[in-house]
Amino acid sequence: MAKRDDPETIGRRVQQLRHERGLTQRQLAEPAYTPAYISTLEAGRVRPSDTALRHLAERLGVAFDELATGRPAHVATDLRLRLTEAQRTLATGAAQEAADLYAALLAEAETYGLVEERATALLGLGECGLDTGDLTAARRHFERAEQALSEADAPLPARVPALRGRAVSHYLAGELRYAVYLLESTLDELNRGGLHDPDALLLLYASAIGPYMDMGAHARAAQAAEVALALAPQAGDPALVARMHRQVARTLVAEGRLAEADASLAKAAEMYRQLQIRTELANCHWMRGYVYAQNGQLERAEEELRAAQTMLSAKRAALYSSQVAVELADVLHRRGKSDEAGTLLRDVLGDLSSERGAVHAAAAHRLLGRIAEDARNTDAAEEHYVRALSLLERAGAAGDLADLCRLLGDLLRRTGRVEAALDAYRTGLGHRTAPGTTTLGPAPAQPPL
User: Does the record bear Aminoacyl-tRNA synthetase in its keywords (predicted)?
Assistant: First the structure.
């Protein structure tokens, strides 16, 4: 039940409704109460009990909630239906249009004090921010949603989508370690507290795979994928299961199980087609392009990545589109189309930074460095490698750092700077940890599967 208004507000509301219906205080009061009680109530000098409010609501011909809160009958139901429509709009990839809908619904929910609906609107605005690449706004919306639910004493599983949204916004901003901290601490609290909510757990484990992989914590990513697959049959949200399959594919690729990764992505893509979730379908094309690139099937990789970029660009998903462009440029470079790759990278670098897609920004500079090396422009190559190194160090992307230090060390050695090359190699060795060993601390407690 929503929070009741103060006695003075309720008193004014009762008086207004009584006048509109042409009732005297005696007619409103009888047979259970006295005219004096109604007079005191309308003056705001008494807090009416639920029993009194139900009597008055019946005599005035309004719902109990409307009298107690000023909220018209059925407004919550109507608002939930329109929130579902906004969610469908976002699913088509029309993030800006969806954001406008969510903003209007948020204002309405706040007007009527509807906490759950307000949180849902804020979550929707956060997801719109992720799609458009406005990570600061997205994080702010997720934080507000979490705060609203906390103030309403919502259980932890109900707050998980907001916590996961915060983690993803930090992950996309290149703050890998903090993203993992948010996900793992929430998982630990759920599992240790015995709060076995399959949807909440699946959302968290699937979301942890990406930052684990980028940090070089392959064993922990594989463990998260294993738990996610075990949870999937218990989950009630098919879109969530499809997202899980897309994330699990990353661990399968890392283990060399490319056919299984492709099968997992095909399953996810089919589910997204049925659910008509266009942005996630584009992400499946993106991931399949990555799988084909890892398998040396460069022509198919290019087709999938171009399809993903076209779909994301059409829906103005700027950050995701730029990230796909970097991976497409890598495939083009490997196919001998270095000029086209370089042009593509320079076009999207303005959309990427240390606070927005840091890992892909580093990948873009790394690839531009390789292209410059091929053109025997060692100064430009070194500049790009150093910029990539700075981005990766800030993000904590250990696996990519080790490889980049090797490239930079090789370049420095070839140009006669042996001591500088040794420093680069040592830096790389410091990040070349054994699979699954990180400084993350103990893994979160496991759910009782």
Answer: no
